[in-house]
């Protein structure tokens, strides 16, 4: 291995910033290796580094946006002259200043391997498109995170729990949710009697009650939800659990759970916006949820060995179970003896992971724990959403025996024999999008209309809007308006509203721009004496309740309203009315063996009461190809299958079409972020 490869091999992908390429925590400023000294006028007074997203204060000072935002969370004055200051009073620096910063010369953080120098604004495209070291780190992380489920081979023996497992109690729930019950598969086809596949029966689900307590009235639970009676999904479904949130720390909720009741209020037949309003109730929130558990096996035939929980059949790596849950007990010679384990957290997955076992340490000598194992529990304490610090505290407080429960991905083999050869899937960027070419109508009850406002203004007068989105954000959202400030000329006109999607200003197209490009374009065009702004507004039958749930009742004072303007995001239903040409989609390739189904349910197609409806993913079943792949989400809209549009199909046509795909299917989907509560 070369010196450069050795250096990059020591880099933890979990802590690598995907913008600057350096290792730092998510809330910290980006790091760059500048080639020349930077003028003091371009340095932030808080972090003492060259400015990133510079913001000018009314008193004439300039700071990084993140630095200033963090400072003003606890303080209400300028860090330099201590004049009273609030974030909404600040404005992005001039285009000249931003251009000077963008042109600062930097070197690639992996310079030893790629030998590249460039302007600061070119570093991120370089990392994602040209840097071989960055690409290798990303590919290795993708392999560790989501190995192709159908390429894995079972290993016997080392997946079995020891007799000590009886004393550990019930395994953490994450093991049950991330891994299917032993031998369960999705019954798309009935297997023959001589088939060796596990016996199967009906889908198993159960109802659970989960109580979450907000310490502060406006604290977010950390759920993104989709669905509602006004959408084809019908039910309210959890699309995503926000990392490090209250729901994530609690650990009992998971994506795909159907929310049936909130504080004894039924959500069975309420529109989406009403469900959001109910979930935003302060203090204690008691959720009744229906959770999918996979498929229950039929009773085994007398000539077959029964499948025991936690034994080789259930834990061995297989297409239904690409990993193993292990219990490992380490015994120290004395309480203070270190175990010799380095623990880390990952940026793309919650929980605690083993980074390294120190040579000569107790864990290395024992030999049962391995690098990249995910720590589910230590001494019976749940760490599925824990931190390395909390894990270290548990270890330090333990007596001589330390009991680990870990999840280990199965090893990927690449043998040359006919049965050992595997076709490795090329890692696909998780959020790759392309402009949709599939024309279709929005769901029933949703539509959109274009609006244009033309006004004359003083060149120095602000439009008075804040924006978010842009084609560089995670979901490739269009640029949309987050607030219309009362000090701007658009507020007086009254035509433009919060949530409107920006199409153009003075004829300049805004639909393909990144956030920074959109901000620059709006500022440049707003400096003219006449402005023509074209927007698109989505309309739903529940527009009144949409306004109620949008957060307007959550802020009492003017300061709260301004703070909300920076944090406001549209409800999931706002995106459903956008026309097809505004959608960006991605292709997701799923693979399976012949006698399985894909592991998701769909709703939509032609309905007599609503006409032609788009197809949506409603359920993703644990222990199936769709679940293991990890990219499909509840609420995703299917616009094509194997390149053929789904427009005009009914439910009874699409389902057989999916079943006919023996080993591989390509789904083209549109994914809008669920409503955050």
Automatic annotation (TrEMBL):
Residues 44-82 form the RING-type domain. Residues 142-200, 295-322 are annotated as: Disordered. InterPro entries: PDZ, PDZ_scaffold, PDZ_sf, Znf_C3HC4_RING-type, Znf_RING, Znf_RING/FYVE/PHD, Znf_RING_CS. GO terms for biological process: exocrine pancreas development; protein K48-linked ubiquitination. Residues 152-167, 295-304 have a biased composition (Basic and acidic residues). Keywords: Metal-binding, Zinc, Zinc-finger. Residues 209-281, 327-410, 452-537, 587-669 form the PDZ domain. GO terms for molecular function: ubiquitin-protein transferase activity; zinc ion binding. It holds the Pfam family zf-C3HC4. PANTHER family: LIGAND OF NUMB PROTEIN X 2-LIKE, MULTIPLE PDZ DOMAIN PROTEIN. This is Ligand of numb-protein X 2b. It comes from Hippocampus comes (Tiger tail seahorse).
């Amino acid at each position: 291995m070369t010196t450069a490869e050795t250096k990059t091999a020591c880099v933890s992908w979990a802590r690598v910033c995907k913008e600057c390429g350096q290792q730092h925590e998510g809330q910290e400023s980006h790091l760059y290796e500048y080639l020349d000294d930077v003028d003091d006028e371009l340095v932030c007074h808080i972090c003492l580094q060259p400015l990133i997203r510079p913001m000018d204060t009314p008193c004439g000072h300039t700071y990084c946006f993140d630095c200033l935002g963090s400072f003003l969370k606890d303080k209400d004055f300028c860090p330099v002259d201590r004049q009273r200051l609030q974030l909404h009073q600040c404005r992005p620096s001039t285009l000249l200043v931003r251009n000077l910063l963008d042109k600062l010369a930097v070197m690639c953080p992996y310079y030893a391997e790629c030998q590249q120098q460039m302007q600061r604004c070119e570093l991120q495209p370089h990392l994602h498109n040209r840097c071989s070291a960055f690409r290798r780190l990303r590919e290795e992380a993708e392999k560790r995170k989501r190995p192709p489920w159908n390429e894995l081979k079972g290993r016997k023996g080392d997946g079995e729990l020891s007799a000590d497992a009886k004393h550990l109690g019930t395994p953490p729930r994450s093991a049950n949710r991330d891994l299917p019950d032993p031998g369960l598969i999705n019954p798309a086809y009935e297997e023959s009697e001589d088939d060796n596949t596990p016996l199967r029966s009906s889908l198993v689900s159960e109802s659970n009650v989960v109580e979450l307590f907000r310490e502060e009235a406006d604290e977010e639970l950390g759920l993104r939800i989709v669905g509602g009676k006004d959408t084809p999904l019908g039910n309210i479904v959890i699309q995503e659990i926000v990392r490090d949130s209250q729901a994530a720390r609690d650990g009992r909720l998971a994506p795909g759970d159907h929310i049936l009741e909130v504080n004894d209020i039924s959500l069975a037949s309420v529109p989406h916006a009403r469900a959001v309003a109910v979930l935003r109730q302060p203090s204690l929130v008691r959720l009744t949820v229906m959770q999918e558990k996979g498929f229950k096996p039929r009773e085994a035939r007398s000539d077959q060995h029964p499948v025991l929980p936690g034994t080789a059949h259930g834990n061995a790596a297989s297409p239904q179970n690409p990993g193993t849950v292990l219990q490992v007990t380490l015994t120290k010679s004395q309480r203070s003896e270190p175990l010799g384990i380095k623990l880390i957290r990952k940026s793309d997955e919650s929980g605690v992971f083993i980074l390294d076992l120190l040579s000569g340490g107790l864990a290395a000598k024992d030999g049962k724990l391995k690098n990249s194992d995910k720590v589910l529990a230590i001494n019976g304490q749940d760490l599925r959403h824990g931190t390395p610090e909390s894990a270290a505290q548990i270890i330090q407080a333990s007596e001589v025996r330390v009991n680990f429960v870990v999840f280990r991905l199965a090893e990927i083999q690449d043998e040359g024999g006919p049965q050992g050869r595997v076709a490795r899937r090329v890692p696909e960027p998780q959020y790759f999008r392309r402009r949709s070419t599939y024309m279709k109508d929005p769901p029933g009850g949703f539509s959109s209309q274009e609006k244009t406002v033309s006004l004359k203004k003083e060149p120095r007068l602000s439009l008075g809007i804040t924006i978010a989105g842009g084609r560089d954000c995670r979901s490739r959202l269009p640029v949309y308006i987050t607030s219309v400030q009362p000090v701007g000329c658009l507020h007086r006109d009254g035509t433009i509203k919060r949530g409107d999607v920006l199409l153009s200003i003075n004829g300049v197209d805004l639909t393909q721009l990144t956030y920074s490009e959109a901000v620059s374009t709006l500022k440049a065009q707003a400096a003219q004496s006449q402005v023509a702004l074209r927007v698109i507004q989505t309309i739903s039958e529940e527009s009144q309740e949409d306004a109620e749930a949008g957060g307007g009742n959550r802020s009492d004072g003017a300061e709260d309203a301004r703070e909300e303007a920076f944090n406001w995001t549209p409800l999931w239903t706002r995106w459903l009315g956008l026309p097809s040409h505004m959608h960006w989609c991605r292709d997701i390739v799923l693979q399976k063996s012949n006698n399985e189904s894909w592991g998701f349910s769909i709703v939509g197609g032609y309905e007599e009461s609503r006409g032609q409806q788009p197809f949506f993913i409603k359920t993703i079943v644990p222990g199936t190809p769709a679940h293991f792949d990890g990219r499909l989400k509840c609420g995703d809209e299917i616009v094509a299958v194997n390149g053929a549009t789904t427009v005009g199909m009914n439910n009874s046509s699409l389902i057989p079409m999916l079943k006919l795909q023996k080993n591989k299917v390509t789904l083209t989907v549109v994914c809008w972020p669920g409503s955050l509560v």
